[in-house]
């Protein structure tokens, strides 16, 4: 009987970095990150670029000044949003109204 594989597939995403966060990425406007959710993508970005997480997460959720788009759709599930294989992730400054 074959052994059960408990490995999970981790997807790569292209992450587009807004100008306000490029100091953390050495000026890169895009990079590759691994993860199945927005939270996992941010954790991988934190591993690559220390300080990234603190700029986009506050009190366990996305900061109010940042929205996340996955494949052109603004996330409604925040950090729990699924990230399909070969996705494009955009961190975009949230626009305030008034």
Structure description:
With 98 residues, the chain is an alpha+beta fold. The chain has a single domain (12-93), classed as Roll (Ubiquitin-like (UB roll)), CATH 3.10.20. It contains 2 helices and 7 strands; from the N terminus they run E-E-H-H-E-E-E-E-E. A hairpin with a 2-residue loop joins strand 3 and strand 4 (61-62). The chain is globular and about 35 Å long.
CATH architecture: Roll
Major sheet summary line: 5 strands, mixed
Proportion in β-strands:
25-35%
- Order of strands, widest sheet: 2-1-7-5-6
Name the CATH class: Alpha Beta
Task: Output the keywords.
single chain; 98 residues; alpha+beta; Ubiquitin-like (UB roll); five-stranded mixed β-sheet; two-stranded antiparallel sheet; globular
